[in-house]
Amino acid sequence: MRPSGRAPDQMRALQFEPGFTRHAEGSCLVSFGDTRVLVTASVEEKVPPFLRGKGQGWVTAEYGMLPRATHTRGNREAAKGKQSGRTQEIQRLIGRSLRAVVDLRKLGERQIVVDCDVIQADGGTRTAAISGAWVALRIAVDKLLAGGQLSEDPIRTQVAAVSCGFHDGQAVLDLDYDEDSQAGSDGNFVLTGDSAIVEAQLTAEGETFDEEGLLRLLRLARMGCTEIFREQLKAVGK
Amino acid sequence: MRPSGRAPDQMRALQFEPGFTRHAEGSCLVSFGDTRVLVTASVEEKVPPFLRGKGQGWVTAEYGMLPRATHTRGNREAAKGKQSGRTQEIQRLIGRSLRAVVDLRKLGERQIVVDCDVIQADGGTRTAAISGAWVALRIAVDKLLAGGQLSEDPIRTQVAAVSCGFHDGQAVLDLDYDEDSQAGSDGNFVLTGDSAIVEAQLTAEGETFDEEGLLRLLRLARMGCTEIFREQLKAVGK
Amino acid sequence: MRPSGRAPDQMRALQFEPGFTRHAEGSCLVSFGDTRVLVTASVEEKVPPFLRGKGQGWVTAEYGMLPRATHTRGNREAAKGKQSGRTQEIQRLIGRSLRAVVDLRKLGERQIVVDCDVIQADGGTRTAAISGAWVALRIAVDKLLAGGQLSEDPIRTQVAAVSCGFHDGQAVLDLDYDEDSQAGSDGNFVLTGDSAIVEAQLTAEGETFDEEGLLRLLRLARMGCTEIFREQLKAVGK
Amino acid sequence: MRPSGRAPDQMRALQFEPGFTRHAEGSCLVSFGDTRVLVTASVEEKVPPFLRGKGQGWVTAEYGMLPRATHTRGNREAAKGKQSGRTQEIQRLIGRSLRAVVDLRKLGERQIVVDCDVIQADGGTRTAAISGAWVALRIAVDKLLAGGQLSEDPIRTQVAAVSCGFHDGQAVLDLDYDEDSQAGSDGNFVLTGDSAIVEAQLTAEGETFDEEGLLRLLRLARMGCTEIFREQLKAVGK
Amino acid sequence: MRPSGRAPDQMRALQFEPGFTRHAEGSCLVSFGDTRVLVTASVEEKVPPFLRGKGQGWVTAEYGMLPRATHTRGNREAAKGKQSGRTQEIQRLIGRSLRAVVDLRKLGERQIVVDCDVIQADGGTRTAAISGAWVALRIAVDKLLAGGQLSEDPIRTQVAAVSCGFHDGQAVLDLDYDEDSQAGSDGNFVLTGDSAIVEAQLTAEGETFDEEGLLRLLRLARMGCTEIFREQLKAVGK
Amino acid sequence: MRPSGRAPDQMRALQFEPGFTRHAEGSCLVSFGDTRVLVTASVEEKVPPFLRGKGQGWVTAEYGMLPRATHTRGNREAAKGKQSGRTQEIQRLIGRSLRAVVDLRKLGERQIVVDCDVIQADGGTRTAAISGAWVALRIAVDKLLAGGQLSEDPIRTQVAAVSCGFHDGQAVLDLDYDEDSQAGSDGNFVLTGDSAIVEAQLTAEGETFDEEGLLRLLRLARMGCTEIFREQLKAVGK
């Protein structure tokens, strides 16, 4: 029995609330159980310096956590004056994951900045962020298509992410904080709507992996992402 | 007619959602119309260095704004590596306002850190933050009283804040972003439940004030705060 | 009897020494009793990025305190690597106060940066700074007018500031450090030469305010500023 | 044919020069072809604050790159005043990889800081760093064992890392800079001497992965690490 | 003829105004012509961490320049968030120069922090700062001796500094800004009251030095310092 | 007898390994005994902002020390977020020393950035850095001449540096770390190939200098630099 009482291949309750805030071109409050992340997609009619004049766009992400999103209060990164290594690692991962399903040439010379801010944390904040980010991005791009700024859809397919790990030797899906703390080893998988892997990150803590274990986790991840893909589509009304 | 269509002495729709997040000892999502601020109160069993061994507690506040809380995206302060002067000014004001109604001796040697994070901004974020902060603080202190960590209530009375200003020569209450941008002069008042002023900040932009104007604004502020006090009490079930 | 032995409505000895340093277009060493602030106004033939090409100028201020301006040595902000919230709050106030009496269109596309550095502190450094800043600004603008860079005077009127507060229930003017430490509540008023209020900031510490108290402080502030206005004019030879 | 002319499963020339610098308790200059990383292991008789009094030690890593280690000069991180997200991501990976093979309880209350500084970069700096770090760590721990500060060996097994990726649809081992730039997708594997996976990070750029591809890369990684393990042992004289 | 019209071996007008500010244990406004530096010496009853429990004291210095001390306004270091290399170089030099004439054992476990802030700059700010620093230090130490905190005088002798350089092939003393800008090569000498050299820094710009030139500059420096020593003694009433 | 057992006028073993890294236009690993500094010269086809359009080039230097280059590990400057005063002082000295022998007009509108990174420290890192920097610069400039980007050689002569100091009253050359720690006073001299002094920095610690001592050190420095000049020429094949 896993700590959460869920079946090994059972996701937490998934919820995508599109349009949670009104200023952003796209927004979504995503919940993976008690993990809640507010995602906004902001369209900017300029690209970063390294892309100027190259005839293509850019998609990038920033990640943050409210100081009391967690069990005990963490220091505010703005007050400390720098983003932690963990924060930077996560926001780089979110950005790469989104770019994997976007044709940057079709986006034109504009940038979409996706902000993922964790309102409440209970494990899997980065996977919830990636999954919600696709919804916010989809909404923002739909607005550009509807407004005629884009004529062709630059988003090739969906992208979603989920964590998996071993708990007491059993492969389990979508770990919450308690399960994550006790997991011998775990990983995050980012998959596309056409079933391809775009990112996989596995870390052994205590226990190590072998091929067999890796494939079992990947199989679980596919199951989880299938469910996420379905909810994403509902959220964007497709 | 004011831009929002409201009567001069009419507040925006007020909403306090207590317990919006689950980890913090006290939390509240406060809405003044489209302005929405998530406030958490975190109890820490230690005091800052300058108070160690002095037999009293401390209440302090931090303020932040999600990058796309506003009409156009602002830079993330954590990424820039510093908090703006505006941010620091506001969080100092929130902290002073709360301390004005707390008996720090009765709090014991513990600190309550109140985080106010703006989810969506439409004018008056600091006044919404102060008003919501009292609710989060009240909930956190009630938990300390219920748990026996405190025997006497350190909160003397309520505290709330509201903005007022002159729009086309008319004194109006609780300015939204559009009204604030057009106001000739405006101010923020922080009042206590027993009707005293704890902070008043007035700034003339374009038009200047005289005593008469100042008193008219103050009268409006009293009306607004009376309404806020009522909603605060409902939110904390009193 | 107030601690300083002064009458309740008595300012400290005021002194404005124009031209205290020779490189700045305008400069002034202002003393409010033992509080001494060196102010320089520097004319720059460019405006900040957000104003480029808008056909108007800008006036801004920076504030600093020498490490041993105070009773005990404070850390040097340049060594700590950041300006405190208090410093930023004060320099924003000085800038707004000056801009309240300047027609930025008449200034042309140039910026005047006013630096206020506290040489010695004994309470009221921000009010002395604002009062001295007007003198330095006036001198710099006179130089622009004399040199033909400006044809019309962009300064509409004078601006001055003074603090007031309650000491043992009595409203007193221009608090020194000792009085400020013991004041139940106090505030800073920024007034223009034509008697209008441009900024008012009141903070209750211990005692709170009511309308009556607020008006008594404002009345004192008017008396103090009248005296400051007179000395400012003498300093600039008008 | 891969750009480097190597066979798909061929590593670059490997070289470990133990004792490259004389002050560190352990040091090693590791070369994976033209990629050269200087690694030092420094023993400190204290642990970080979060471990004080817990009866265990710590192993951590820092990573840096000399400004002209690369084809075009990069800015010096010390001059910019912060470490990039990439730097932090890599040094966290190195630290986790080393801790995966160390029994921190047996290390006692001391810390070993492993510094990995890239002298020359040609792809695979993080995998060379991890592989060299084990050698420096082994030397430092041997010194502690010889000196009697440790009675039991805290290092459980070897650890090594290598990159693999797809080039023109072919799975290739140990990518150099040119190959890495052209790879459709690639990854880094960190394996232990007893053949377990401790870290796996895969990123698709352009092409995506499937299980089959993932397993092919893993198989190559095993081959590469076997060779690295052999050279590590030679370097430490075992 | 040198630009300033002075004789080659002529110092600018020297002035030491002791007690310029009232809070510091020692203070002095020193003028070398138009170069004016405010120096304060602050006594702290503690030593930096590296000296704790070693039975000796410490003397250290910090240096700053008001933004408009110079011909054109420089950025405020506190606003930029860091001290320039030049600032750090100068404050390290001032600290070493003072420590060269102080017996740190006799000072006891206390620190004297000397702040040198340039009010107006016209060349030679570091030499004026060192020369004025001795006066402020002397006054602060005299206060400790008079108050009985010290029983023996820790100051062994005077210390002063002056610049010299070559202008059109002629060795000249105490360069002002114009002369410094045109000098082919110049240097700063720090000498003690008993005629010994404690610091010498020479830099060739355009022209280089030889032994002969070096000795000519040193001879001028001795003449200049003799005059400074005399004025220092007058300033401290000895 | 000096601690190192060397004769008073004996340099440590000198070694210049040109071309130590392959990406930089010029590079050199310089050893003064156990002090080893890796120097690279990077050619950039642009100049810093203050020189744009002035028809001249620039040579600048940066200095760093690997954390465990020293006996005990120092903090990584990139992790601390700032360069120490010592680092900045040294890199400014290296830059000035190189510029003293380069005709910046002949360099054209390009910049050469010289990075000096200390791999292992045993005293005299700045003098080794300057001496090695000339070699790296020479190689980079030779490449520009050979490639036709430059038609005239902008390097006027060689430049080298060495330290000297008094140990037990005896003047000794090229101090190692132990000797430097015990030296009563010491200095660094930067000399050109035509025997002129471009920089001299002398600091008395404990003992002071007189003219006689200064000249003895200078004489030693000439002897040391003569040997360095010879080795530099060998290294660049001239």
From TrEMBL, chains A, B, C, D, E, F:
Name the Gene Ontology biological process terms: rRNA 3'-end processing; rRNA catabolic process; tRNA processing
Top enzyme category: transferase
Binding-site positions, phosphate? R86, G124, T125, R126
Picking any one GO molecular function of the record gives: 3'-5'-RNA exonuclease activity
Q: Which UniProt keywords apply?
A: Nucleotidyltransferase, RNA-binding, rRNA processing, Transferase, tRNA processing, tRNA-binding
Please state the Enzyme Commission number of this protein.
2.7.7.56
This protein's source sits in the domain of life called Bacteria
Give the InterPro entries listed for this entry: ExoRNase_PH_dom1, ExoRNase_PH_dom2, ExoRNase_PH_dom2_sf, PNPase/RNase_PH_dom_sf, Ribosomal_Su5_D2-typ_SF, RNase_PH, RNase_PH_bac-type, RNase_PH_CS
Q: Where is the Exoribonuclease phosphorolytic domain?
A: 10-140, 158-222
Cite the SUPFAM superfamilies for this sequence: Ribonuclease PH domain 2-like, Ribosomal protein S5 domain 2-like
Q: Show the CDD domains listed in the entry.
A: RNase_PH_bact
Report which reactions are catalysed by this protein. Answer: tRNA(n+1) + phosphate = tRNA(n) + a ribonucleoside 5'-diphosphate
Task: Give the family this protein belongs to, as stated in its UniProt record.
Answer: Belongs to the RNase PH family.
Role of this protein? Phosphorolytic 3'-5' exoribonuclease that plays an important role in tRNA 3'-end maturation. Removes nucleotide residues following the 3'-CCA terminus of tRNAs; can also add nucleotides to the ends of RNA molecules by using nucleoside diphosphates as substrates, but this may not be physiologically important. Probably plays a role in initiation of 16S rRNA degradation (leading to ribosome degradation) during starvation.
Subunit info here reads: Homohexameric ring arranged as a trimer of dimers.
What name has this protein been given in UniProt? Ribonuclease PH
Q: Which organism is it from?
A: Sphingomonas cremea
